[in-house]
Structure formats: C-alpha cells, structure tokens
Amino acid sequence: MNLKKVLSIYAVTVGALMLISWVILFGINQSDLATDIKTKPIEMLFVLINEILTACTLIIGGYGLFSNRVWGSRVFLLGTGMLTYSMINNLGFSLQHSDILMVSLMLFLIPLNFLFIILVFSKSRTRIPITVGITTSPP
To answer: Cβ distance 84 to 95 under 8 Å?
Structure first.
C-alpha cells in the first residue's frame, strides 16, 4: 500500500471516529460532558464546532488525497493541522480529568500526526512558499 493511501485512510478514519465519538458521548449522556455543557455552554459549543469542522476537513482531505485531487494534500495538511490543535486541547482536558487512557492515546497520536504532516510536505510536488519578514526589491 502506498503512502497516499495510508495517509488518506488515516484522515478519513480519524475524521469519522471523531464524529462517531461525539454522537456516542451525547447518546450516553456522559456525566463530565453534561456538566461541562451546563457550566460552560459557549466554550463547549465552540469545542463542538471545532471538532466537527476538523472531522469534516479530515474526511474531505483524505478523500482528496486518495483520489489524487490537486487540492488533496493541502486540505489534508489543513485537516491534520486542525487535528493537532484538537488533540493538544484534548490532552489538556484529559489531564485535567485524570483520564490516563485518553492521555496515553493523545501522547501516541500527536507525534504520529506530526510525522504524517512532515511526510506530506516532503512528498508534495508543489511546495508551499514560506516567507519571513518584509522582502523588498533592491533599488
């Protein structure tokens, strides 16, 4: 199996699992989640929006990568960047609630996610230009 297929399967799987996990959490009315929704409704609304947008971006990016679309690697990178933010945020939440299983999962997935980002950058045909500071042409 080639690298693009592995990365696209990763993105689609993680995105789908994110959506499924939220459905399950709301379905079982998990006590920590219910408490957070009651005490911090606006914060939890934006956490949920972030998670849904991240999941959808991962699924679209994974599809684009798998089907060799021109935009596939860029959307994949956007989705994995969003996922990195979500995982770091989740790591803090899990540490706060002493959820060792979730902390362990995040500590495994965060470096894996960075590895995938590096692999896509290194294999990408189109380089994304990075400029620092103000560039001026000589007189």
So the answer is: no
* Nearest CA-CA partner of 16 in 71, 67, 79, 102: 79
25 token code pair? 């959490």
pTM for this entry: 0.80
Name residue, tokens 């770091």: 88
The answer to whether the CB of 8 falls within 8 A of the CB of 76 is yes
| Secondary structure element (H or E) that encloses residue 118, with its range | helix 100-123
Percentage above 90 pLDDT, the chain: 47
d(CA 125, CA 112): 22
| Radius of gyration for the alpha carbons in the chain, expressed in angstroms and rounded | 18
